[in-house]
Amino acid sequence: MSKMILCRKHILCFLVLMMFIPCMKAQDVDRKWALNYTGGAWVKPVLTSNPSGLSLGNGSSALRLIGEYYLPEKWNIQAGYFRTDLSYGDAGRTMEGLQLGLKKYFVNPDIIVQPYLSGAGQVNWSRHIEYTNFEYMDYSRWQQTKNPRISFVPGIGFELFLFSSVAFVAEYNFNIALNSQTAIELKPEGGSPYTLKDKGMYHNLQLGVKFTFPFIFTRDDVLSVFTLIMDLFSDSLERRYEEKNHIYY
């Protein structure tokens, strides 16, 4: 019975697949431009002073929405929006603005894994100077931050094309800020006072998705989708069949 159900599911998927294939493109077209959205999986300030050895936790975050235009010789240019929120425990700072840069790829565009090197500049339009002096009972926090107007962002990453026009993106950047610094003196309630300082540099590991245009869906993409669907159906039906047999016996 289980094999008969699975066979019917496979036949149904095959018939639907045959209906779609004539509408699909047989080969890839050249990529002209792309949209890229990534979020910070790991963002960490580089401290120049941390006498207490304080852990900053995982409160920092980042995001980017970037448009890309492909050039000859495996180059492309990119421009878009960025935002970074750096956390220092009970304190933090925010930068956002415009990012402009270049990417250099190294392998044939038909290969599904595309490693690259990148370099970009960021123009920060958020507050240049942030100053906080807060006291409440036994708690006190003093912070002075000079956010950069210009930052340089070298990076390395790869794109894994799940389909012809859809890729998973992973990129590591080391942000180098110009004329930037943060100084924090904090005394938590019931705890020992500590100080933190940095020069505006931080690590940034971004994960996200990229869509290339013209957007296409090839025969290989259709086959991949329906193979996945059939595998999911098969696994689900097999589990249900085994559960029923277990109940009956």
Features:
11 strands; flat; 8-stranded antiparallel barrel; Porin
What does this structure look like?
By secondary structure, the protein is of the alpha+beta class. The chain folds into two domains: 30-217, Porin, CATH 2.40.160; 218-249. Helix content is 20%, strand content 55%. The protein has two helices and eleven strands; from the N terminus they run αβββββββββββα. The chain has an eight-stranded antiparallel barrel. A hairpin with a 2-residue loop joins strand 8 and strand 9 (166-177). It starts with a helix and ends with a helix.
Average pLDDT for all residues: 82
- Roughly how many Å is the radius of gyration? 25 Å
Taken together, the total number of domains comes to: 2
Helix content range of the residues, please?
10-25%
Order of helices and strands: HEEEEEEEEEEEH
Quick structural overview:
This protein has 249 residues and is α+β, with helices and mostly antiparallel strands. It contains 2 helices and 11 strands.
